[in-house]
Design goal:
Elements lengths: L19 H7 L3 H13 L8 E4 L4 E4 L1 H15 L2 E4 L2 E4 H16 L21 H9 L2 H6 L4 H12 L8 H8 L2 H4 L2
Helix pairs in contact: 2-3, 5-7
């Protein structure tokens, strides 16, 4: 039987719940939660006033209503689709499959565990180039590209802010065909 080398990050300890493997398994997917936190603050779903300091254990806590709002953002993140093995799966399903893959490996039924697939796609739809294309787009050019007057108005409002905003694929494609966006 081949030698399987497995590295674990979290040690068993008497003061923890002795579920160190669960902590190890969360590491490859921690970015999903990090991204949800960023999205929650950028969208103003969470704000600093939602948090308070609990002096007894030196931790910050957040208000129950803020927790509920954040859980919704987190739920959306875990339910978002990703291409994996020729199918579109939710991230929570991918995590379940990776857990099974790790279990098969630990039992010697499989020789590999690949946590690099599927790779996260962290492309923002409101890049600097997109913002500049929106702000430089004239009304007549927008009309020619099939972008309505009110859509352009709201895109410009969003492009002037520092906050993240969603540019839907059909609008993004119309901007991509713009001479300004292509740098011509």
């Amino acid at each position: 039987m081949p030698l399987v080398v497995v590295y674990f990050l979290h040690d068993f300890s008497n003061y923890q719940t002795k579920q160190s493997l669960v902590s190890d398994l969360e590491e490859p997917f921690r970015w999903l939660v990090d991204l949800a936190v960023i999205q929650a603050f950028e969208s103003k779903t969470l704000e600093l006033h939602d948090f308070y300091f609990a002096g007894d254990d030196y931790r910050y806590r957040f208000e129950p209503e803020a927790k509920r709002r954040f859980i919704e953002v987190l739920r959306e993140q875990f339910n978002s689709g990703v291409n994996y093995k020729g199918r579109v799966l939710k991230w929570d399903t991918v995590i379940q499959e990776k857990t099974s893959e790790l279990g098969r490996s630990l039992k010697g039924r499989s020789r590999t565990v690949d946590f690099s697939e599927p790779a996260p796609i962290l492309e923002r739809t409101d890049s600097l180039a997109v913002r500049e294309a929106i702000l430089n787009l004239t009304q007549s050019e927008a009309k020619r590209r099939g972008i309505g007057k009110s859509t352009l108005h709201y895109l410009r409002i969003n492009a002037r802010t520092r906050e993240s905003f969603k540019v839907y694929d059909n609008i993004r494609n119309r901007l991509n065909h713009s001479r300004m966006f292509l740098g011509e």
